[in-house]
Write the structure tokens for this entry.
Amino acid sequence: MKNKKPLFAIAGIAALAVISATTAYYINSVVLPNDFKAADYQAETTESFVSPSDWKPCDVTPKTISVKNKNSNINVTVRIKFEDYWKDRNGNDIPDLTLNGQKLTSINFHDGYENYWELNSEGWYVYKTALAPGASTTPLIDSVSLSCDANLAGTVSYSADGQTAVTSDSPYTNAKYHVKATVITSQIAE
């Protein structure tokens, strides 16, 4: 038994040497910096519009929207969606003016817009071609108008004897018509 102790000691030292070498192998580390620079992407939306302070029937107010692929080195796609609605003088929603079921407000599209824009099933107007760097869209709309048939005035009613007139305000008196345009541009891989 006396001769086996040095043998166990040598085996233990050998096992420690193997464990130390294995541990040293797994502790070795390397840092590999890998930087990726994204493509330049900057689209610019421009609106030409002056808000009227006294919009009346028959008024046509110029409004245009265009998008430019500005300072980019990649192509972009463009889509636009419109929401239009009325708010009364207190900020409450009111229905759009109609006559015989027809809206009396209209967003007037640019002549020939359908050559460049396409209406999809979700209500977005999608520019048919990708915008190359530096390119701009053609106009989608030119103006917004209020029909000559729109009655913004109140109603007048008369008493039974026809002697007394009673005037009531229209909900559209001092109301605001809003056209909200949402523009989304997306970079595309070619």
